[in-house]
Structure formats: C-alpha cells, structure tokens
Amino acid sequence: METMIESEPSxxxxxxxxxxETISIETSHGIEAIQVNAWFGDKxxxxxxxxxMKPRQVxxxxxxxxxxxxxxxxxxxxxxxxxxxxxxxxxILLDGADIMELDPVLLRRRVGMVFQKAQPFPTMSIFDNVxxxxxLNGMSNHNQLAAVVEESLKRAxxxxxxxxxxxxxxxxxxxxxxxxxxxxxxxxxxxxxxxxDEPCSALDPIATAKIExxxxxxxxxxxxxxxxxxxQQAARVxxxxxFFLLGDLIEFGNTKQIFTNPKEKRTxxxxxxxxx
Length: 276
Known about the structure:
Blueprint: E1 2-4, H1 15-19, E2 31-40, E3 43-53, E4 58-62, H2 69-76, E5 86-94, E6 97-98, H3 104-110, E7 111-114, H4 126-136, H5 142-155, H6 159-162, H7 175-188, E8 193-197, H8 205-218, E9 223-227, H9 231-237, E10 240-245, E11 248-254, H10 255-260, H11 265-271
Parallel strand pairs: 4-9, 4-10, 7-8, 8-9
Antiparallel strand pairs: 1-5, 2-3, 2-5, 5-6, 10-11
C-alpha cells in the first residue's frame, strides 16, 4: 500500500474516513510497523521498517541525527502528513487496525505526542492548556473538566506544583514544568500510546530526572515510544531499543542486550561513540 499526501488530511474527511470513527482501537497489543517506507519528495527517509512496540513498555529509538527517528514516530500517528508531498508505504497497525483507514483526528487522540520543545498554548492558562483537547472533543461541564485536569496533572507529576496557580499562563512555568504540562495535556484525552520526541533535550539534569521518573511511572498504563540521543537515558528508561541508521532499522531488541551485547557491529560502534 502507498499513499500520497498533499495536504493536512484532517481538514476534509472522505465518507470512508468518517465511517472509521466508530472503529475500536483499544491498544492491548501495542502498535506495529510492517515494511514501512517513507519519502519526503524524492528523499527516501525510512526503508522497510518492521518492528512491534509492545503494550505498557517503553521503546527507545536511538541513532545519529538525520537517521529517520523523528519521522518514524510521526508516522505512528500520521503527523508526517502535515508535510506536503509526504508518502508512506507499508502498514502501521494499531491493535490490528490499519491507521491509514482511521480518521487522523481520532487516531491522534489515541496516539498522543510530546515534542522536543515544550509548546504550551501561549494565550492559555495552565488549566486551559490541559483542558484544550477535552473542550475540542465536546466536554463543557466545568466540574468534569476540573476533575480530568486535576487527574492529568497528577499523572504528569505536576499537580502539587501548580494547583494554586491554575489560572496563570502555562508559559510562565519552568522548562521542565512546561514539558510536564504538555504531557498532562496529551494524557487528558486518554491516549493509549504516548510518543515522545527528544522530550528532555532542552532540560537541565534535574528536570530530565523528573521526566524520566515520570516515564517509568506512566508505562504502567501507557505504551511509550521515545526518541532520544542520550544513550544513558535510553538505557535507564526503556525496555526495548531500536537503532536507526540512514533510514534503516539496524537492530531492535531488549535494551540490556542492545547496550551490553549488540548483535550488529554498527550498533556497537554507535553506542561506544565511534561515530554519531
């Protein structure tokens, strides 16, 4: 299967896409890529990627800059489609459902994303940042909103720090707090899978430690896929690790095995700092 994307697909849904809104996509079995290829124009950025990200585990994706890590996780919730001319072939299955047959808005509720740079909505309070997705999905009762906002902030380990300043701007928080606010915003709409693209790259060691502790707690209820350049971070937080190089999946397996006894010499060379 190959699809050509020329514009953001959520702007106009076909009749077939609208019909998929009722498809159940509970993620008891995680998410799986099967022979996935991706292009931006003529540039072939992902090459026959096949891997299964297991439920309630953390999968780390490592590799040098430009190897396709971020493109891959964007494909998992079709965020790559915002780039005109993007193409994808192969399949990505969310509990057996092909994500290309799902409404992208519905898909992104179930497969949330946290980006490299924290991006709180600049004109919104802390409360409204977390409640934004809920309101977009039709929730208007203030008591319901307040309950979900509180629970989401607690899950993001931020509630105790902001419970008395919920009306203050989200952009007034520290960098680490802003990142946890964005995580709370993603959790509020009840995703099953959480994608994280270099979530600690702009944070200091103390804030990074808090995010890593949060990831370990969140995996009890969520499937997490994290892109990181930090080898130590991948070793600390992940159950399985995938090593990408120039668009290819070089090695994928148990994190301890990848870091202590890699099967591929290129994996060993990257982990030991010989390149990248």
